[in-house]
Specification:
By secondary structure, the protein is of the alpha/beta class. The protein has two domains: 19-167 and 192-307, Aldehyde Dehydrogenase, Chain A, domain 1, CATH 3.40.605.10; 312-503, Aldehyde Dehydrogenase, Chain A, domain 2 (3-Layer(aba) Sandwich), CATH 3.40.309.10. Helix content is 42%, strand content 20%. The protein has helices spanning 4-22, 40-51, 87-122, 124-135, 139-146, 148-166, 212-220, 235-250, 270-274, 288-297, 321-333, 362-376, 380-387, 393-402, 438-441, 458-472, 484-497, 536-540, and strands at residues 54-55, 63-67, 80-85, 171-178, 181-194, 197-201, 225-228, 258-261, 279-285, 302-306, 312-315, 345-349, 353-355, 358-360, 407-410, 429-434, 449-455, 476-480, 500-503, 543-551. Strand 9, helix 10 (288-297) and strand 10 (302-306) form a beta-alpha-beta unit. The radius of gyration is 25 Å and the shape is globular.
Length: 552
């Protein structure tokens, strides 16, 4: 007998499975604010305000006290406290919850997971305000990225996992001819068995967009999930966990299948918990140092990491110079470069940039790009709705330290936010360095820091970009050229380096945007990530197939 939640969402699940095969545009969650009602933004703000100066209720086991010290990058103290639970208690409760969840089967688990996504979707503006005031994303970006786009990614991972599980039949009759003798006949039963407890270590900039794929891939394949929140960005995941626990309980299962783990920045617990033998899956998004440590040390678990890289652009030629500059200005400004997809290094040769109006020198290109960014941000009220706020003081300090790396084409400056006077808002820093200064560009510099690197030729630009990506990793690679030979060389370099390539973006699509159900986010083929969000490899190793057989 099927579960009511599966019956309710079966049609949507079918569409999602079809969408991951076609890879065209599809999204079941509206990205227009109007779809959520005329009062949705204000309702979301009020829901967010209700969390402030209060205790966040989660009826989790092993509570040892309260913790939480989030302060909005916009200068607003949150003063939210959360239950701080003993990791072993959460793990034990998760293991206890597993048997009934396993027995429920893929259909029921999928139905419950999609119901969680539906409830989260209904609270997208509540989530938007929570994400805005923890990550620093501007409100509309927080709504889309942490709401419908994150939900898209969660459903996408769920659909991949569901498809992989459904490829395994529940039963089969095996009949082998034996000549004149009666055939050998056996009945075989195949059961999907999860690996075990999953630890999802969330990042400080996109906790839901990066966190939901692992969460739903694990849950639908039968694995309980413990979310380890970043200590400065807890509220969005607390809301997520609360919604998930409520739905799971309503569905008739143990709500300890999902829980929240928090720590004190001075006493981090992620390493200790990750090394526990009962942790069998780890999803991690964040800096490369800890990501590399997880990959090297957590041999008892399957580890999926998305780390930092040095995203590159090669500029050779363009058929619309101004449109290219506008596209790049937005790309460098969006959320102040605090995205794993934002380009850092722009390679341009001394031969200049070929345009319909003639060749633009590399020196002029650098100044034109700086001016384009400045023009794009000249209205402070508009600028802050693109830039958002700097999530951490460490990123703000990094901007100051980077100014000595090369010639400053455009200095970073503070921008006064018209609504939040204490907001930490900085405009992009643009530098120019020679290709010989590898110290400057062969390292990720997270935040609104970009470098124009002058090479001798476009061939050197492509070769250097490929080397950077192969050695340091990258999530994105972008090329501007009207020369088919250069485009072919760029595509070949991207294939060798294992990085997604965008060619001649001049319109309303930007290299740092990634569409659910269509774009494969990261590849797992270079040091920036060991996994892709989302493909079959991201989900298939989260479960085993265990069989039994008997003579008929």
């Amino acid at each position: 007998m099927s579960h009511p939640m599966f019956d309710r969402h079966q049609s949507l699940l079918t569409q999602a499975v079809e969408a991951i095969a076609s890879r065209g545009y599809w999204s079941p969650y509206a990205e227009s604010p109007r779809a959520y009602g005329e009062t949705a933004i204000e309702d979301g703000r009020q829901a967010f305000e209700a969390y402030r100066n209060a205790q966040f209720y989660l009826d989790q086991p092993g509570v040892q006290g309260k913790a939480g010290s989030e302060v909005s990058p916009y200068g607003l103290p949150l003063n939210v406290s959360y239950p701080q639970c003993a990791p072993d208690a959460l793990i034990d409760a998760a293991k206890t919850a597993m048997p009934a969840w396993i027995k429920a089967g893929p259909d029921t688990r999928a139905g419950v997971c999609i119901e969680i996504l539906a409830r989260l979707n209904a609270r997208s503006f509540e989530m938007a305000h929570a994400v805005m005031h923890t990550t620093g994303q501007p409100l509309m970006m927080a709504f889309q990225a942490a709401g419908p786009h994150a939900q898209d990614r969660g459903l996408e991972a769920l659909a991949y996992a569901y498809r992989e599980m459904k490829h395994v039949p529940e039963t089969a009759i095996w009949e082998k001819p034996q000549g004149k003798n009666p055939p050998l006949k056996m009945e075989k039963k195949f059961t999907i068995m999860p690996r075990g407890v999953a630890l999802n270590i969330a990042c400080s900039t996109f906790p839901t967009w990066n966190g939901y794929p692992g969460m739903f891939a694990s849950l639908v394949t039968g694995n309980p999930v413990i979310f380890k929140a970043h200590p400065t960005v807890i509220l969005p995941l607390a809301i997520t966990v609360a919604v998930a626990r409520q739905v799971i309980k309503e569905a008739g299962f143990d709500h300890n299948l999902v829980s929240l783990l928090i720590d004190d920045p001075k006493v981090p617990v992620a390493k200790d918990v990750a090394m526990k033998a009962d942790i069998r899956l780890i999803d991690y998004t964040g800096g490369p140092d800890f990501g590399n440590w997880l990959e090297e040390n957590c041999r008892h678990a399957v580890v999926y990491t998305e780390k930092a890289g040095v995203n590159c652009i090669v500029v050779d030629s363009t058929d619309d110079y101004k449109a290219m500059l506008r596209n790049l200005a937005f790309t460098f400004s969006l959320y102040s470069g605090q995205m794993c997809t934002t380009p850092q290094t722009v390679f341009v040769s001394r031969e200049g940039v070929k345009t319909p109006d003639g060749v633009v020198t590399s020196e002029q290109f650098g100044h034109d790009l700086a001016n384009s960014i400045s023009k794009f941000l000249e209205d402070p009220a508009r600028a802050v709705e693109v830039l958002g706020a700097i999530q951490s003081a460490a990123t703000a300090a990094r901007i100051e330290a980077a100014q000595d790396l090369g010639e400053v084409l455009r200095p970073s400056s503070a921008i006064q936010h018209p609504q939040w006077p204490d907001a930490r808002v900085r405009s992009p820093l643009l530098l120019k360095v020679p290709v010989s200064n590898e110290r400057a560009f062969m390292e990720e510099r997270f935040g609104p820091i970009s470098l124009v690197v002058e090479t001798a030729t476009t061939s050197e630009s492509l070769a250097t970009a490929e080397r950077v990506i192969r050695e340091q990793g990258a999530i994105t690679f972008s090329l501007y050229s009207t020369n088919p030979v250069v485009v072919q060389l760029g595509e070949e370099a991207a294939l060798r380096a294992g990085v997604a390539l965008s060619i001649n973006l001049t319109g309303g699509v930007f290299v740092n945007q990634s569409a659910g159900f269509s774009d494969f986010h990261a590849t797992g083929a270079n040091p920036a990530a060991n996994a892709c969000l989302t493909d079959s490899a991201f989900v298939a190793n989260r479960f085993f197939v265990v069989q039994s057989r008997r003579h008929v």
